[in-house]
Specification:
By secondary structure, the chain is mainly α. It has a domain of 105 residues: Orthogonal Bundle (Arc Repressor Mutant, subunit A). 49% of the residues lie in helices and 0% in strands. Component of the Mediator complex. One of its GO terms (cellular component) is mediator complex.
């Protein structure tokens, strides 16, 4: 009979590995595509709600499968992801509270609504951090007022020389109305007859 001490000293032999381990006939291409498709389906909150209602999250093997799929977050695999929200939900599915909450329709609607708001404002929020902020425009210097010309002292103008008053032959001053309209009997009158007679004489002599 072998003592317990001898049995502890003897190493336990592991079962031999099979000579021909399983190998995908297409070098894992089909498996790669299936896992990529399933991971990207997790970007849809309605699909996660379907899995929760059908009690997939109560299966320990399925929980382990979700943990295994986290390798898609590595740089060499993440470049194949077209819907990056799936990686966010995959990370949340590692939490039991989130898995239980997604069984309720209200939680599904809340997740879907928040996802919509993220898509709606993603571009504007991202541009705020990517685009450089424009430099503040320099304030325009105040425009100086036009220079005030030096005040030139105004030379006082001499009052216009007053015209001598119109006087009559008798020495009395005429008013403007009398000068313009009333005929003055004191002014000498030119004799038109004598003037015409002188012109005729000049023509005959000439």
């Amino acid at each position: 009979m072998v003592s317990s001490k001898e049995s502890m000293d003897c190493p336990v032999e592991s079962p031999p590995l099979p000579n021909n381990p399983y190998k995908d006939p297409d070098d894992g291409r089909q498996r790669f595509l299936l896992e990529l498709e399933f991971v990207q389906c997790l970007a849809n909150p309605t699909y996660i709600h379907y899995l929760a209602q059908n009690r997939y999250f109560e299966d320990e093997a399925f929980i382990g499968y979700l943990k295994y799929l986290q390798y898609w977050q590595r740089p060499e695999y993440i470049k194949f992801i077209m819907y990056p929200h799936c990686l966010f939900f995959l990370e949340l599915l590692q939490n039991a509270n989130f898995r239980n909450a997604m069984a309720h329709p209200g939680s599904k609607e809340l997740a879907h609504r928040q996802q919509y708001f993220f898509w709606k404002n993603y571009r504007n929020n991202r541009l705020k951090h990517i685009l450089p902020r424009p430099l503040p425009e320099p304030a325009a210097p105040p425009v100086p007022p036009p220079p005030v010309p030096a005040s030139v002292p105004a030379h006082p103008q001499a009052p216009p020389a007053s015209l001598p008053p119109m006087t009559t032959a008798g020495g009395s001053t005429l008013s403007p109305m009398q000068f313009m309209g009333a005929p003055s009997s004191n002014l000498p009158k030119a004799d038109m007859r004598n003037t015409m007679g002188d012109r005729r004489k000049r023509k005959k002599e000439g």
